[in-house]
Amino acid sequence: MALKLARAVAECLRRSPGQRFKAREIAEWIFATYPEECQAKLERSAALHNEADLLQQLVAEIGSNRPQITKSNPQIRTVEVRPRLFYWTESTEDEEATTVEERGVHVAPAAPGIAAETTSEPTSVIYEADLYAKLGDFLQTESRLYVQRIDEKRSSNKRGPQGNRWLYPDIVAMEDLSQGWTKEIRDCVSEVGARKFRLWSLEVKLLLNRSNVREAYFQAVSNSSWANFAYLAAMEIEGSDTIKELRILSSLHGVGLIRIDPDNPSESEVLIPARERAEVDWANCDRLASENADFQAVIRRLWEFHRTGTAKPGEWQV
């Protein structure tokens, strides 16, 4: 019997709904589950010389046939950024975005066959709050930023359920422009009143898909209008249409995109660079600081840095 790839992929993913798997993990499951069909495929192809070649061929076919696989099985979804992950869900995209927002993302602990059949290890769950420190690690390591978590719940002005999320980003960061400057340059900049830092605003999401991408993007636009750089950061970006939409929106509004790697924060990456605003909107900052203790603390540290030229890393906390 010939190996039906789309059917085999669907069977593999259906056994572990909601869990994310790489194409290689799926190929390994197929290889172990359909040994006779795989052996027949190996013998038919002159280009395949051994089992390793066949496994790599299955990985390539899963990737290249992804559009057909997802079209024939609407329950199969894929995460578009690298590494591309496949998973099975019975939820609509709108239901999935809501579930992710409320309960976090489930991540598979092992390859599908092992997870489904031979271990009782529970599926791990990642919540949005878990991503703040991971994004902070990436920003500190890659861009040498000073990072501060902003808790919208610490605002004195209550605007109803989730009202403040349109005003405050999840993270504010300061970029020290004076790193590496000589004392003479530092003194000169202080004397003439030139800027010593740039401010970043970052909105964090677990998942971006066609259902929630515009709301999430314009939330980032709304709560970052004061900053030099604004970013939307997400762990998962589902669907090629979502990436296309984000590129279009970024060209119009300048908010960039960061993919967060929760397992290895240093492997996170800037997918779409943000467009710089030349000036900080200090009037807006004043309003935010007057209503939120975390933002007020950031402003105090900015003033101290501008006055002394020294930042205290221990005072910046994610």
Q: How does this structure look, described?
A:
The strands form 3 sheets. The protein has a 6-stranded mixed sheet, with helices on both faces. Helices cover 46% and strands 17% of the residues. With 318 residues, it is α+β, with helices and mostly antiparallel strands. It folds into 2 domains: 5-126, no CATH class; 128-315, no CATH class. The chain contains 13 helices and 10 strands. A hairpin with a 5-residue loop joins strand 1 (76-79) and strand 2 (85-88). Mean pLDDT is 86; it is low at 114-122.
Q: What's the N-to-C terminus distance? A: 56 Å
If you average the pLDDT, what whole number results? 86
Total domain modules: 2
Backbone CA Rg: 24 Å
Based on DSSP secondary structure assignment, what is the total number of beta strands? 10
- How much beta, percentage-wise? 15-25%
What structural category arises from helix and sheet content? alpha+beta
The topology string of helices and strands comes to HHHHHEEHEHEHEEHEHEHEEHH
How would you describe the shape?
Answer: elongated
Uncertain parts: 114-122
What are the defining features of this structure?
6-stranded mixed β-sheet; 318 residues; alpha+beta; two-stranded antiparallel ribbon; 10 strands
What does this entry show, briefly?
The protein is α+β, with helices and mostly antiparallel strands. It has 13 helices and ten strands. It has helices spanning 5-14, 23-33, 35-44, 51-64, 66-72, 93-103, 112-117, 128-143, 183-192, 213-222, 240-253, 282-291, 293-308; strands at residues 76-79, 85-88, 105-107, 124-126, 145-149, 171-176, 197-208, 229-237, 256-259, 269-272.
